[in-house]
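Module 6 notes. Inverse folding takes a fixed backbone as the condition and produces residue identities as the prediction. Think of it as a translation problem where the source language is geometry and the target language is the twenty amino acids. Below is one complete input and output pair. Work through it position by position during the lab.
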């Protein structure tokens, strides 16, 4: 593991990776009560950005130019925006590109192809994102909330509760930042273009619904309005908020949906994913089958393998029966034990037997690679989803 030099100077009050576990800096909330981040061009569509420029007395097309720098060229330094008169650059970037994410700490492993950044937001909240380079693709795993309110007991973020939702631009900027890192060529033997986004960092994306959907639009609309990624290459992972899944169906997007199931029976899922007390296994699976039917896209079923908790052969068989014949694939995640947790990862032979039984039931199953484990994924939960498409 390497601690990378920071791209920007570290401020005296930040810098502890342990704080990334959904915990805000001391008194952050007291200092800035529910303070929203400043508006950024990524919060707005192109028309909205042009309106801001016009209100400032600038020509509206300056908004297109600055958008091309940000989304098209991945440039955020006003000094490089030479097509805009020098006198206007600072005003325009101050109004449309305020700094939202300050890197507090950067770590890398896997020969530099996995890189985690801990960010401080304007109000002191801390979130993480992870960049993962592969020979054929570059994926970024991003956060949608500071903290999380879903309280899953095996998840580090879940322990500290929700601090706040991220703004659309705070979500988008994680991706644009890492697209710039990838384009700089620092990922050895990986393509220079970031192509995939997984919402598997901190937070429950469907609990920050409107901003996450807006972020998906921004990420998938071509430049200069957005980043121009493919919808199919964006994965939204959820604990299973059924009404929000139905809203997502109505959006008519073709993003990949991942469901954090973790148990095939209500007794255990009520404990592992407490929102199951509201929407039961059968209900949440029905909802994802509606999503699969509407989009034609295979749903990814996430299942953290927890020793002697959810890894029994009978649970593999029950899961196999629930998923057999469905447009689904299982992604087993070796549990990344969180500090102080009473739980551990399943032994490899138990994991292999679980896989064997699922496959015997005709359910495509993969075991997630343990990318970034050395740098603690982020909260033990960030890793590449084996996403198809
Ligand atoms: N809230 C969303 C997305 C964030 S977590 C969701 O729950 O889907 C991304 C994935 O990592 C989820 O499947 C989550 O259950 C899993 N995860 C969380 N903590 C983990 C841990 N300690 N070990 C392995 N997987 C974990």
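Target side of the pair, the amino acids:
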């Amino acid at each position: 593991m390497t601690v990378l030099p920071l791209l920007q100077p570290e401020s005296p009050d930040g810098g502890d990776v342990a704080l990334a576990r959904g915990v805000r800096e001391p008194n952050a909330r007291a200092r800035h009560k529910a303070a929203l981040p400043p508006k950024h061009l990524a919060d707005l569509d192109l028309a909205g950005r042009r309106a801001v420029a016009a209100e400032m007395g600038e020509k509206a097309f300056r908004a297109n130019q600055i958008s091309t720098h940000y989304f098209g060229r991945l440039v955020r330094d006003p000094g490089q925006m030479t097509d805009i008169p020098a006198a206007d650059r600072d005003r325009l970037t101050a109004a449309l590109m305020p700094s939202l994410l300050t890197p507090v700490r950067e770590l890398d492993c896997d020969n530099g192809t996995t890189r985690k950044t801990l960010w401080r937001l304007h109000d002191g909240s801390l979130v993480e994102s992870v960049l993962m380079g592969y020979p054929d693709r570059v994926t970024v795993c991003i956060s949608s909330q500071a903290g999380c309110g879903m309280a899953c007991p095996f998840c580090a973020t879940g322990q500290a509760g929700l601090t706040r939702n991220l703004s659309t631009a705070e979500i988008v900027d994680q991706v644009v930042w890492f697209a710039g890192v990838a384009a700089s060529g620092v990922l050895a033997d990986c393509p220079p273009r970031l192509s995939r986004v997984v919402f598997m960092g901190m937070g429950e994306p469907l609990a920050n619904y409107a901003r996450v959907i807006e972020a998906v639009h921004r990420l998938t609309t071509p430049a200069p309005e957005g980043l121009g990624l493919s919808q199919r290459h964006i994965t939204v992972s959820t604990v299973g908020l059924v009404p929000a899944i139905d809203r997502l169906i109505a959006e008519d997007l073709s993003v990949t949906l991942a469901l954090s199931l973790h148990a095939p029976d209500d007794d255990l899922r009520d404990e592992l994913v407490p929102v199951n007390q509201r929407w039961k296994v059968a209900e949440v699976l029905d909802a994802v089958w509606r999503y699969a039917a509407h989009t034609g896209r295979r749903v990814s079923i996430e299942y953290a393998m927890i020793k002697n908790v959810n890894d029994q052969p009978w649970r593999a068989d029950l899961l196999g029966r629930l998923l057999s014949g469905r447009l689904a694939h299982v992604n087993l995640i070796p549990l990344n034990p969180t500090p102080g947790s009473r739980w551990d990862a399943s032994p490899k032979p138990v994991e292999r037997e679980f896989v064997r039984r699922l496959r015997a039931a005709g359910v495509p199953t993969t075991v997630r690679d343990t990318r970034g484990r050395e740098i603690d994924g982020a909260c033990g939960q960030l890793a590449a989803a084996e996403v198809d498409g």
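Reference fact for the lab report: The mean pLDDT is 88.
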